[in-house]
Write a structure and sequence with these properties.
This protein is α+β, with helices and mostly antiparallel strands and about 475 residues long. It is built from twelve helices and 23 strands. The chain is about 30% helix and about 30% strand. The longest helix has 18 residues.
């Protein structure tokens, strides 16, 4: 861990972030970070406990003179997205994040940084540890498994928290105050297939799509970024249509909430088409790279000869798969009719796996409108069921309906305007914040979301602005001093 991170201002925030980033904390593998957080609270002499699902709650009394203010819940999630570049040697299960300073940015070496939501968690830790900051009574809520199911928020029971105001610290642009978000649902398509022997006179090829930016499948879905699974499918479609290409394996993408950056496939072609196939593929590669030259300048597509695989997919199933993936919606499905420039509904074809006689396709469908979410999920379901897949819709969670009359919103708007000489952007986002779920358990709680500027979340290009962290910390401190009276 570089000492230069710990020397950044505000030191309380960055030191807690460095402490947190030394602890492996993948979604659904939060055991170590849960124990870390419990020990942190207990060492401060604060009331610290787990709920039934293993969210951690730490309570701190109000400072002198602030006892008449409303109790606040400061909330962040403990888990982080684990993504790394293919050429990065890193074990997320045993290693802490290797951070460094690059100008105004804090980055990680070849992996995700964990600023989502580590900077929010570190903020709460710094406030809990402080001895000279004015604040009302605080309930710190550290949820688990936000990134792959929001099971921590879903499992939190009503009645545990006493706070009247919730500050969610998981927004990623420092000039925005979030008052609404999208809900989501997982769409998973699976089926088995028969394998066939490789015909005589075949040539094996490995196709690799890499160098894409990736990113957050909600916040970045409108940016026109490349999806490795869709790009790979274009190559497979053309090879099959024109040269009888047959697929042995596909391994593309990973987590549902990350736009896929890489895909690898093993295929065969009849040697009689060898030269023509390579010529045709190069033309298609040139077209694709030209299409993405602005948004994906580092896109690389490689087609190289490889050893013949042991077997290939049944041709009938293969044709259905390739056509279904071509037809399946990826990216923005509908823009909001009510909020300018807000994506209402989208889908991310996050994972495509074909190997050992099994197909698995994983999508994450998001929408701020429940009926539109289910409309797109059913469209995807129908597409994959037409090729004989079993389709499961799971992990559905609600969106967060904006409250334009929020009392805490007015407090934050006034403070931001005073500090920065301009009004903040009051927005709803296309990401899946936990506020919508928490609101089902605590319907009377006034909720708001804000945070420092973080770019490239859910990808190895994730980076946090140092200057923004300083602006954000100043904002947090004045918010704590101006929480309304009971």
């Amino acid at each position: 861990m570089s000492q230069e991170i710990r020397n950044l201002e505000p030191k309380g925030l960055w030191n807690k972030f460095a402490d947190l980033n030394a602890v492996p904390r993948a979604s659904k593998k939060e055991e170590r970070v849960i124990e870390f957080m419990k020990k942190f609270g207990e060492n401060l002499g604060l009331e610290t406990f787990e709920d039934e699902i293993r969210n951690v709650i730490i309570r701190k009394p109000a400072t002198k003179g602030m006892e008449n203010r409303k109790t606040i819940v400061m909330q962040g999630h403990l888990d982080m997205v684990h993504q790394k570049n293919a050429d990065t040697n890193f074990d997320f299960d045993t290693q802490g994040i290797d951070m460094y300073v690059d100008g105004d940015w804090v980055r990680a070496k070849g992996t995700t940084l964990g600023a989502d939501n580590g900077l929010g968690v570190a903020t709460i830790m710094a406030v809990l540890e402080s001895t000279n900051l004015a604040h009302p009574a605080i309930e710190a809520l550290f949820t688990i498994d936000e990134e792959t199911g929001m099971t921590g928020a879903m499992g939190l029971k009503g009645g545990i928290l006493k706070g009247e105001i919730l500050l969610n610290l998981d927004t990623e642009e420092d000039d925005e105050i979030d008052i609404g978000c999208a809900g989501g649902i997982d769409v998973t398509a699976t089926r088995s297939y028969h394998v066939e022997e490789v015909p005589e006179g075949s040539v094996g090829y490995a196709i690799k799509v890499k160098g894409l930016k990736g990113g957050h499948s909600g916040m970045d879905i409108h940016k026109g970024l490349g999806n490795a699974n869709k790009i790979m499918n274009r190559l497979l479609f053309d090879g099959f249509e024109n040269f009888g290409l047959q697929v042995a394996e596909i391994n593309g993408g990973g987590l549902r909430n990350a736009i896929p950056r890489e895909s690898v496939a093993t295929v065969i072609i009849s040697e009689m088409f060898d030269e023509a196939y390579l010529f045709d593929m190069q033309e298609i590669i040139n077209d694709i790279k030209q299409e993405f030259k602005t948004t994906e300048p580092n896109l690389t597509i490689e087609i190289t000869k490889t050893a013949l695989p042991k077997n290939v997919m049944d041709l009938g199933v293969q044709e259905g798969l390739i056509r279904a993936l071509y037809a399946a919606q990826n990216g923005v499905y509908r823009m909001s009719a009510d909020m300018e420039n807000l994506v209402e509904t989208s889908n991310n074809i996050a994972r495509v796996s074909v190997q050992n006689g099994e197909i698995e396709i994983k999508c994450l469908t998001r929408s701020s409108v429940e009926s539109s979410k289910m409309d797109l999920a059913n469209a995807l379901r129908s597409t994959f069921e037409l090729i004989g897949c079993e389709v499961e819709l799971s992990g559905s969670y609600p969106g967060w309906t904006p409250n334009v009359n929020s009392e805490i919103l007015e407090v934050l708007k006034a403070i931001y305007t005073k500090q920065n000489g301009e009004e903040p952007k009051v927005v709803a986002c296309h990401a899946g914040l936990e506020c919508g779920i928490l609101g089902t358990h605590y319907p009377d709680m006034d909720m708001i979301s804000f945070g420092p500027t973080i770019h490239g979340a859910h990808s190895p290009d994730e980076r946090a602005s140092i200057k923004s962290a300083q602006k954000y910390w100043k904002f947090v401190l004045e918010i704590l001093e101006n929480i309304p009276v009971k």
